[in-house]
Amino acid sequence: xxxxxxxxxxxxxxxxxxxxxxxxxxxxxxxxxxxxxxxxxxxxxxxxxxxxxxxxxxxxxxxxxxxxxxxxxxxxxxxxxxxxxxxxxxxxxxxxxxxxxxxxxxxxxxxxxxxxxxxxxxxxxxxxxxxxxxxxxxxxxxxxxxxxxxxxxxxxxxxxxxxxxxxxxxxxxxxxxxxxxxxxxxx
Length: 187
What we know:
The protein is α+β, with helices and mostly antiparallel strands. It has helices spanning 26-36, 58-78, 132-139, 176-186, and strands at residues 17-21, 43-47, 50-55, 82-84, 89-92, 97-100, 103-107, 119-123, 143-148, 151-158, 161-165. The chain contains 4 helices and 11 strands, in the order E-H-E-E-H-E-E-E-E-E-H-E-E-E-H.
């Protein structure tokens, strides 16, 4: 008997594709990054032997771009120096962590190139995979923002880990409810 194959309920281009590999050495992670080079493609996250490759869906990319544009417009309107670094690979061999945010930013002017972003933004479109907050904690990123289910959530680095917050510490006047309304009206 032959059974018919049913197409997925959601078109494949609307679903993030994620693969997790286990027992990968730091050297293996570095070799993978070197092979990939500067080519766009899967975002890579590494946490002490776990390697995650995530190919963002069209929806994921749409929301991260909209959120970045809104944040940049806010900074421009408020005369805030905000420098975008996209999906910059931030890594540390000492703590065996590496990550590529959906978008990341440095607030203010620096004399030296930054070693980590001040703000990392992650669009949560699918669940599972490596604990991003644990990766960012080890790297010392001050703020991680998650866009999930139509809401902007802030996590601020405290001693020992991240704590959820109603506001950004770096951009305290930024209204997450207004950002959410703008995101819903733009989509």
